[in-house]
Amino acid sequence: MRVFVTGLGAVSCLGEDIAAHRRAFREGRSGIRALAVFRPDLPTHAWGGAVESVPHDAAPRAPAFLGRAIGDAFRDAGLGQLDNTPVFLGSAHGNLDSWQRHRRGDGEARGLWDMQGDALADCIDGPRITMVSTACTASSVAAGLALALLKSGRTEVAVVAGVEILTPFLYRGFESLRSLAAENCQPFDRRRAGLTLGEGAAAIVLENASHARRRGAVPLAEFAGYGFAADATYLTAPDPTGTGAVRALKKALEQAGLRELPGFINTHGTGTRLNDHMECFALHRTFGADAGKIALTSTKPLTGHMCGAAGAMEFVSTVIGLEANSVPPILGFEEADADFTHLDFVSGSARSLSCCAAISMNSGFGGTNTAIVLHKGAP
After folding, report:
1. Which residues contact 193 (CB under 8 A, 6 or more apart)?
2. Which of 193, 216, 236, 307 is the most exposed place for a label (fewest CB within 10 A)?
3. Exposed, middle or buried: residue 330 (CB in 10 Å: 0-12, 13-18, 19+)?
4. pTM for the whole structure
């Protein structure tokens, strides 16, 4: 059974609707800036992708982002209310701002309970999968669950969503791991020095072919294949050999029946030395000498790393690339690491590329890895 993407929604530092994100991804425009909204909690050098239109002293912010993104996706798909549509939600940290306010004594949160998926998903009407929480692969794993339900025939429409908020607590946590860049991240560049955090939400409406055809929907892309694998080598570092990523890629390619090379791959591309090395090694193991023929990008210098929402946001950006036959550049990329010179990184400006398929990759703490294959196509 074929499954199609018929609507996209997004809220991030790039804007508050999918139209703003389509423009930004096609232009290769970043929303990363100094995090003035968090001062004096953070030093003046702190950078990230903040949604400044929603006050950071107003909690909870995650449901606000989530509601906007899902509503945006339904409008983009030309659908009405959620009704009985199942929602598959991914988040790594949930209502972290409510918990932080509770800890400071200036909120009515119920402690750790308000961080959980049940509390976050209570803002969604109708049946739902509460929160998938597999670190930075959370919303891409949610996408895989939605795909499985649609292919089983138990639903005709499903929504995939990811949401994450940026707080001083989260920033300090990544800072303690020494994983943050001083300014914006530079994935795969020899000067890269860490990741840049972001926040927001993304949502995708999925429909089976018969439902999309009956209502005259115009598919944006086909969700053709999905792969998940865990290597569990280290808690906070990837398997340097890329074993989990290779298994996820091969599963997704097999399910999609993809016989040609993808036109481009939207990598996880965090800008940390260990993750970038792992991904490049995994691509070489999967595609061999042909790995150098595939255009590679990372959209994290545009939105920041949205943790559990990264998979959904990068799903969205990959569909936008297929729609426009345009691959956004890796902002800040100038010179590849010596180990990556055989690979084709999109740099400078967006690259016009006519292709029928693309892949979105994600990895997370604990060794989780996902791969999503998207096709152009119509029901």
Report:
1. 181, 182, 186, 271
2. 216
3. buried
4. 0.93
